Amino acid sequence: MEKGRGVYQRVEDIFAHAAALQQSGRLKNTIFCIKNRVYILNQDHTVLLKFMLHSKALNFEQPVSFEANDYDSPVFEVKDDKVCFIKKRDGYKCVKSCRTPQHTPIKMVKLFKSFSNKRIEKNRVSINSSFLSNLDTSLSHVEFKGDRKGLLVIQRNIYSGMIITIREDEDRKGLLQPDRSLMFEAVGLRTNDFVALFSFSNNVDFYFANEGFVWLRSRDPRMLFTGVISQCIYDEIGKV
Q: Whole-model pTM?
């Protein structure tokens, strides 16, 4: 990656967000870069995101991948199957050399394409990050269901039997902006995976019409991405 911030600011922001999520325990991520695309895959393969870089940004000269927690500098290079992060400060040059992950950027391109080819953009619900204040993040899963009244969100404590239900206030309808034809059976997502998406974007569209996964798209121009998040049923976690 070339030196300097300029047009690379957005790329650095993506890397920094992914690293921060790993350090906070929210998501452990691997980053894959190829041409003008950046992919992020979490450790247990339940979330896969694709970022398209700004048209003014140069493509990555060669495919590169690394663990988000290893990210240490916007200046890096691939050498002998290792990623080397380079820092220069006070007359010294520090090089941090890290192993590349098992999976490759080319594999991520193929994996993402396999979901993109079968996606169905229906049952759309646009959610703002302000919605997160309604969730109990100590509960592992959150369910989404479309019915005659609109969107129903449910969290359950399977041990105590406690249930939390969330709907839009009748006096403030339209905040979640669901499709008018919104009707779908309950779809479970892991709470940590769902919440982590809003670290990248304040507004995300979710499409609850895909078998085994939910298609999603950022609506924040500062951090545009598309992606998939696997459906979960409590102790049964799907993979992408």
A: 0.87
User: CA-to-CA distance for 72 and 114, rounded, in angstroms?
Assistant: 32
Task: Say how far apart CA 220 and CA 200 lie, in whole Å.
Answer: 9
Phi, psi for residue 134 in degrees, rounded to 5:
-85, -15
Q: So what CATH class is 6-116? A: alpha beta
Tokens of 37: 């695309």
Residue 2: pLDDT band by 50, 70, 90 thresholds?
Answer: very low
* Percent of the chain residues past pLDDT 90, beyond the cut: 51
Four-way CATH pick for 124-237: 3.20.20.70, 3.90.1150.10, 3.30.870.10, 3.10.150.10: 3.10.150.10
Q: Are 237 and 229 in contact (CB under 8 A)?
A: no
Q: pLDDT band for position 25 (50/70/90)?
A: low
Look-up: residue for tokens 């998040």?
A: 229
Collapsing DSSP to helix, strand or coil, 95 comes out as strand
Q: Which residues pair with 77 in a beta bridge?
A: 84
Give the sheet arrangement for strand 29-35, strand by strand. 60-67, 29-35, 37-42, 47-52, 226-230, 213-218, 203-207, 124-128
Q: Alpha-carbon distance 118 to 130, whole Å? A: 30
